[in-house]
Amino acid sequence: MRRLFSSRSKRNENKHGGTNRNRSPVFRLRKYIPHFCVVIICLGLITFGIWWIFIYENEDIAARTEYDELREIFMQTPELQASPPQVSPAEDIDSDIEEDYEIIEDEAEHVMRLPIDELVRINPDFVGWISIENHIEYPVVRGTNNDRYMYTTFSGERNRAGAIFMDYRNRSGFNDHVAILFGHRTRDGTMFSPLVDYLDHTFLNENPIITITTRGGEELTYRVFSARQTDAWDAAYETSFINSTRAVSIFPNAPAKASRFLLLSTCTPSNDRDERIIVFAALEE
Asked: Cβ–Cβ contacts within 10 Å for residue 146, how many?
């Protein structure tokens, strides 16, 4: 009987995986440790994702707010634009009237220059303002290299939206044969995101005009004539054209008499970091 009982006990131990000591609460919890690890990792990933989305949203809001404020500065209308006194040719203009005329003229010029002066005060790298009606309204800057404003806004804040910036090889007055401007294609459709639409001929035909207001107050009108998807090594990025004929030969469908061009560049919606969308426009002279 003892042997029989002993054999049955051993069989029970083997059947249940060990003695009662091995079936303690600690032992039973050990088999759930891998599950706990998976849960903790998943919670960590979810927390990180929420945090990352929060950071992205905050950056988007900060960039939109900053550029909205800059638009208000640039587009503000002077409350009073002084005009010179109207004097008929037959009247004698004495020295007092002439002096008053000069003072009023100086004040009018100061008022008209106020928005640009304010933008220069905020950032001395300001070189102009780009406008594509209903789509793009941004200040343009030019740094000492093309990395300066890649992830820095106009006011100098670190932000992945960056700024619209001119190629550092260009002269700041838009006097080169080709002026190149870069901008990000953002998740919220701001900055240079609308350039993607220029691949659609209908959009191109409906939105052909690009206006540049230079730092000196000159207004330049460019007409878009082509757009294409390409890569970062496209020959169109060359700025050292010897003459306008060289430029025309590189730009497809360029007006034969054009001598100065504007090239706008942004990345594509794909994951290829080397792909680019470039929009070509010719200065209307």
From this structure: 15
User: Can you read off the two tokens belonging to residue 25?
Assistant: 């609460």
The label of the residue with tokens 């330049």 reads 220
How far is it, in rounded angstroms, from Cα 131 to Cα 128?
Answer: 10
Q: Using the Cα atoms of residue 167, residue 213, residue 72 and residue 102 in order, give the sign of their dihedral.
A: positive
**Tokens, residue 192:** 């240079």
The 3-state DSSP class for residue 274 equals coil
pTM: 0.71
DSSP class of residue 158 equals B
Instruction: Report whether 239 contacts 250 (CB < 8 A).
Output: no
Q: Where are the domains of the chain?
A: 126-285
How far is the C-alpha of 170 from the C-alpha of 248, rounded, in Å?
Answer: 18
Which percentage of the chain shows pLDDT scores above 90?
A: 49
Q: Is it the case that residue 148 has pLDDT exceeding 50?
A: yes
d(CA 264, CA 140): 12
Average pLDDT over residues 97-102: 42
Please give the class, per CATH, of domain 126-285: mainly beta
Alpha-carbon distance 260 to 174, whole Å?
A: 9
Are the CB atoms for 224 and 204 separated by under 8 Å? yes
d(CA 183, CA 163) in angstroms, rounded, equals 6
Q: Which distant-in-sequence residues (6+ apart) come within 8 Å of 238 by Cβ?
A: 178, 250
Buried/exposed 88-100: b ≥16 CB within 10 Å, e otherwise? eeeeeeeeeeeee
Phi, psi of 282 (to 5 degrees): -110, 140
Tallying the residues shown for the chain, one arrives at 285
Give the pLDDT confidence score for residue 270 in this predicted structure.
82
User: How many angstroms separate the CA atoms of 54 and 110, rounded?
Assistant: 43
